[in-house]
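Researcher: Quick test of sequence recovery. Tokens follow.
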């Protein structure tokens, strides 16, 4: 007698385990899709141009922090300015020549790297903190709080950045690094606030926020523990892009004569002093312009790379 397992299947009938009998799919189809093998840090470091930008920014940062070792290494600066050497061109002992006061130009450019970096970082940090606070409150509470903060943001957003800074700085001529930083923070927080508000509106209705609210979490805990960590990344990326814009704006204000004043040193002031000698002594304009352009361009390229890495819509 033939056992049931030995009975052959009827012609045209589906075999056991076939898809027609509703058998489960192969195990490989049940596995989650494999994650990309290229992680974010590797994506950022796999581009040689970004490494060059990072190296240049590191060099400029070290120049701003430790100017004297760089000056001693790169040029023969006596620390004195002789008018007889004014506007003399580059030479082996003085690679960048001399400025309009007879000072070693390379030494002056190295010393002039500190104010732009300080203002760029301080303004960005201050604007980022203000934007996170205002955007978090507006997006979380909504209602009249959102309306008041949004209308205030619209008013400041309508003020031209350079024009508004020029008017304020002209009205208060006795200003330095602190005053310029405060003015640029007041005029530079609007875009990041809008980004933060939009992120909070998207995150505050997420399932994990609802679950935390159901367990009795208060508004402060919800904002700091559950909403802020998941909403702040795009704002930080925008802030990284903003550093280059702030440095460019600071140099523009110095060039126009409403920013830092002599005897302060900055690349914008050096460009201002060199504009009258462009045709006869082009090195006076060339070297500070190269350092300023290289710094701003490197910051913008690094900011774009970070944005591409952390924005899922751009992958």
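Model:
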């Amino acid at each position: 007698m033939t056992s049931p397992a030995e009975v052959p299947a009827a012609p045209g009938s589906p075999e056991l385990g076939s898809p027609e009998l509703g058998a489960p799919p192969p195990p490989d189809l049940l596995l989650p899709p494999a994650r990309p093998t290229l992680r974010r840090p590797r994506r950022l470091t796999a581009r040689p141009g970004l490494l060059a930008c990072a190296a240049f920014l590191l060099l400029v940062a070290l120049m701003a922090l430790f100017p004297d070792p760089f000056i001693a290494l790169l040029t023969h600066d006596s620390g004195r300015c002789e008018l007889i050497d004014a506007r003399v061109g580059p030479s082996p002992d003085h690679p960048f020549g001399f400025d309009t006061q007879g000072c070693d130009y390379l030494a002056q450019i190295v010393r002039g790297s500190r104010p732009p970096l300080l203002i760029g970082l301080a303004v960005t940090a201050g604007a980022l903190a203000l934007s996170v606070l205002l955007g978090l409150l507006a997006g979380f509470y909504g209602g009249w709080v959102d309306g008041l903060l949004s209308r205030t943001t619209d008013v400041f957003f309508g003020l031209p950045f350079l024009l508004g800074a020029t008017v304020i700085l002209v009205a208060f001529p006795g200003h330095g690094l602190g005053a310029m930083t405060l003015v640029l923070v007041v005029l530079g927080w609007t875009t990041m606030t809008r980004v933060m508000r939009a992120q909070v509106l998207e995150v505050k209705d997420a399932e994990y926020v609802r679950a935390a609210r159901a367990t009795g979490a208060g508004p402060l805990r919800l904002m700091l523990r559950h909403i802020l960590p998941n909403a702040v990344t795009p704002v930080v990326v925008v802030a990284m892009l903003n550093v280059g814009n702030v440095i460019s704006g600071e140099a523009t204000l110095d060039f126009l004569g409403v920013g830092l004043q002599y005897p302060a040193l900055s690349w914008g002031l050096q460009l201002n002093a060199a504009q009258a000698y462009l045709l006869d002594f082009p090195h006076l304009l060339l070297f500070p312009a190269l350092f300023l352009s290289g710094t701003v361009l490197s910051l913008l390229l690094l900011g774009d790379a970070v944005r591409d890495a952390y924005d899922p819509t751009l992958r």
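The chain has 15 helices and no strands.
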